[in-house]
Write a sequence for this structure.
């Protein structure tokens, strides 16, 4: 391993054909098995920090590239791309140095993946497993963003980080009606890869998991989708699987002051989270078979909005303000107080930025029903004041509860953005 880290020998690996004997000598006694079985060449490259972008894909144009480096991570305010591949990881190492090395390697790899270049420089050598798995070779970057977070469990006793955990950063409390399956919960690290092409997003997760071998393993994954830009060239608010426009009431991501108020952590947070944000993830299965049998007026009363326009009940403009005081001549509220929008809105002072994706993961073999729903993702600067307070209200009274069940839950601290030459989590682990 050491030999590979040092310049000349790694140069030999990449430039010259190696005999089997040379290969064994280079990789040490158990080396080749280790190389191929755990992490392969990209694992070695990752461990040595030698993951370098190759030549850009010829078709890549600037509109296809969302810059990876910046003061905040991409994939948070970025308008949601067509596809999502989400992965939660468990660390298997007991060494904080390994965690740091992994985040350094992920940083270099993510910069390559989001610019549409191959990972590593062992993609031509017939004697080595390629350092990039290749399925995105020649594809455009497709607006790929890769957003990284760390879970509360990173701050348990394993890495000496307990004193750095912000007091409000903990697993979410149990909510009424939760039916969580541990298979869809938690994680030490998360990676949210979004792109306008599913193969590009999948490629990102696959290669980051490959690089992590020996240090972290996948805990759970979920793919997601929304309507594509091709199917909706005007880019209206996407509809969820219940047929309703979802995202209308989001705060304006172009309003920097509002984003500082709602999303970005500032000086009130520990320095390592300055410019970061907290992510809440809930895997929500929708009872679509039940929903499909309910009347349009029941459906609209459930959301407090019209299905066709997305406007609040009683209004015609999708973006009209929710008037929760409006009443009909008999004094009955026009928007049901237990509708999803009314409860989520509350008095309008507590907001979050939602960036969810629909999912369809085959069927439940025991019931014959679709395992489909919403991978709810929200970003906020304070999980307790924002996500928890809204979800408590919803869990208790939301009309939508009849049609959904929360089966997975996780929270992550999405690290601040990375400057060129820096790495993810530098302020936490540096
Ligand atoms: C705790 C936060 C929320 C969860 C969980 C949640 C689940 C969930 N939501 C929909 C569909 C819609 N949500 C809508 C609005 C809305 N939802 C939340 C929060 C949670 N939703 C908020 C804060 C808001 C905005 C309220 C406001 O101030 O106006 C809407 C209406 C359109 C819109 O504003 O986006 C829909 C539709 C589903 C299907 C779901 C779980 C599966
Ligand atoms: Fe909602």
């Amino acid at each position: 391993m050491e030999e590979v880290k040092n310049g000349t020998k790694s140069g030999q690996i990449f430039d010259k054909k190696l005999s089997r004997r040379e290969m064994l000598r280079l990789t040490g006694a158990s080396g080749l098995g280790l190389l191929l079985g755990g992490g392969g060449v990209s694992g070695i490259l990752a461990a040595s920090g030698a993951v370098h972008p190759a030549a850009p894909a010829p078709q890549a144009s600037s509109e296809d590239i969302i810059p990876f480096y910046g003061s905040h991570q991409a994939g948070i305010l970025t308008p949601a791309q067509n596809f999502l591949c989400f992965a939660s990881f468990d660390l298997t190492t007991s060494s904080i140095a390994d965690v740091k090395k992994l985040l350094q390697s992920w940083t270099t790899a993510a910069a390559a993946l989001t610019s549409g270049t191959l990972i590593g420089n062992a993609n031509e050598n017939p004697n080595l497993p390629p350092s990039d798995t290749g399925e995105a070779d020649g594809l455009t970057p497709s607006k790929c963003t890769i957003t990284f977070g760390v879970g509360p469990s990173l701050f348990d006793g394993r890495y000496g980080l307990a004193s750095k955990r912000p007091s409000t950063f903990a697993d979410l409390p149990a909510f009424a009606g939760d039916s969580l399956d541990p298979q869809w919960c938690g994680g030490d690290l998360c990676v949210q890869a979004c792109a306008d092409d599913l193969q590009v997003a999948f490629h990102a997760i696959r290669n980051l998991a490959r690089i992590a071998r020996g240090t972290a393993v996948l805990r759970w994954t979920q793919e997601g989708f929304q309507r594509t830009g091709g199917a909706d060239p005007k880019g209206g608010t996407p509809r969820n699987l219940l047929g309703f426009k979802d995202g209308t009431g989001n705060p304006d991501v172009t309003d920097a002051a509002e984003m500082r108020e709602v999303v970005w952590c500032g000086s009130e947070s520990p320095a390592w989270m300055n410019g970061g944000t907290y992510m809440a993830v809930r895997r929500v299965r929708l009872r679509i078979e039940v929903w499909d049998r309910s009347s349009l007026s029941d459906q609209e009363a459930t959301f407090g909005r019209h299905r066709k326009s997305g406007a609040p009940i009683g209004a015609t403009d999708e973006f009209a303000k929710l008037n929760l005081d409006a009443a009909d001549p008999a004094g009955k509220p026009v928007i049901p107080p237990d509708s999803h929008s009314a409860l989520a809105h509350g008095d309008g002072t507590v907001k979050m930025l939602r960036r969810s994706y629909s999912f369809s993961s085959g069927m439940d073999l025991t019931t014959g029903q679709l395992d489909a729903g919403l991978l709810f993702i929200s970003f906020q600067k304070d999980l307790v004041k924002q996500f928890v307070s809204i979800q408590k209200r919803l869990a208790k009274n939301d009309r939508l509860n009849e049609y959904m069940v929360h089966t997975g839950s996780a929270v992550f601290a999405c690290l601040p953005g990375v400057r060129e030459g820096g790495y993810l989590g530098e302020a936490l682990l540096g």
About this structure: Residues 340, 344 surround fe (ii) ion (ligand 2) (CB under 6 Å). The first helix runs from residue 2 to 5. The radius of gyration is 23 Å.
